[in-house]
Amino acid sequence: MDYFLTEEQTMIRDLARQVAQERIKPVAAKYDESGEFPWEIIETLAQMDFFRIYLDAEYDGLGLGAMGLVLATEELSRACGGIALGFAATALGTMPILLSGSDEQKKKYMPGLASGKNLAAFALTEPEAGSDASNMRTTAVKDGDSYVLNGVKHFITNGGVAKVYTVIAMTNPSRGSRGASAFIVEEGTPGFSFGKKEEKMGIRASATCELIFEDCRIPAENLLGKEGMGFPIALRTLDRSRPGVAAQAIGIAQGALDHAVEYSRQRRQFGQPISSFQAIQFKLADMATQIEAARALTYSVARMIDAGATDISKESAMCKLFASDVAMHVTTEAVQIFGGFGYMKEYPVEKYMRDAKITQIYEGTSEIQRSVIGLHTIKEAARKKL
């Protein structure tokens, strides 16, 4: 479909597609097998100014906003969702600074993040606080002109490779979710260390590990916004980052469809290509239609964000929910089209299926997305009656 992309958006999409095909696709299986972080690809993306795509010019960015980020993430994920995540997760970790950082904080951190010299990560999830983020145990206690952090964050994407971490911690636990605050923590800060590196089913090229804070003292000036604003900052961040997860899901689905179409044209059974069978054609038709619908929804939400819309929780949840469900369905169908070969690691579609699953889980499970959508739908109906 023609989404009437601007010249700059088309250029970014095509450049990301070229990088995906020429640099990522040939090494995707290697990094999936080893679980190593793809520094060589990240350095290439930095040299090509990918980390500037979603940033405004005042931060040395290209000013292509959420739509630019979605286009790049989709195309990179088409070759490997795990490798693409090193780029996309840095945008997630940068978002709280963009939304709530002071001028001084932005001047200090944005140059390194924009250049790709420094990666970022977003630290919200804890062992006891997954979907119930208000149950977090990590604390930040004010001590003079410092805060002292104690606690553990886990399942942190870019953990161990990022230089800048935006961390949500409780400054006043008695106030529940209203007692959380957001902080910037730099790698190398005394008392800040890394725990277990996770061995994952999919997106294995992405670094995921625990963050451990043991009397970690950070300057009070590293507080983002005001005390007690941690959850609003986190929610605003997720509202703007979930289209990126949707784009990752779309890219994974599209990559799986590409392989399935090509395989169906080559694989012969009963004396003809399996692409000639109606059963296979119908599968491909449904896969292609669902991907296009997810893409249209996600692009619309990205354009809402770039147009300045602020009340986007429902729409953001919708695009992530729908695209991630599509990714899981499409990759499963791709494995089915490949038959027994699809179950083997020497063929690519089993990896796409493993990579797709996480998009239904992180940055809010599909169940959480449905809760967000349902609550907003009910509230909107109540307002209309009034």
The DSSP helix count reads 11
The CATH topology of the largest domain comes to: Butyryl-CoA Dehydrogenase, subunit A, domain 3
State the total count of DSSP E strands.
10
Q: How far from one another are the termini?
A: 40 Å
Q: What is the global morphology?
A: globular
Count of domain modules:
3
Q: Biggest sheet: strands, sense, closure?
A: 4 strands, mixed
Estimated structural class: alpha+beta
Q: Can you identify the CATH class of the largest domain?
A: Mainly Alpha
Overall pLDDT: 96
Please tell me the CATH architecture of the largest domain by its name. Up-down Bundle
Physical arrangement of strands within the biggest beta sheet: 1-4-5-8
Instruction: Report low-confidence residues grouped into runs of 5 or more.
Output: none
Return the string of H and E elements. HHHHHHEEEEEEEEHEEHHHH
Please compute the radius of gyration using only Cα atoms. 21 Å
CATH 4th-level superfamily of the largest domain: Butyryl-CoA Dehydrogenase, subunit A, domain 3
Strand content bin: 15-25%
Helical proportion, percent range? 40-55%
Main features:
single chain, 386 residues, alpha+beta, Butyryl-Coa Dehydrogenase, subunit A, domain 1, Butyryl-CoA Dehydrogenase, subunit A, domain 2, Butyryl-CoA Dehydrogenase, subunit A, domain 3, 4-stranded mixed beta sheet, 4-stranded antiparallel beta sheet, 11 helices, 10 strands, 53% helix, 15% strand
Summarize the structure.
The chain has 386 residues and is α+β, with helices and mostly antiparallel strands. It has helices spanning 7-24, 28-34, 39-47, 65-79, 81-100, 103-115, 230-266, 278-306, 313-338, 349-357, 366-385, and strands spanning 120-123, 139-143, 146-157, 164-170, 180-186, 192-197, 208-219, 223-224, 268-269, 272-273.
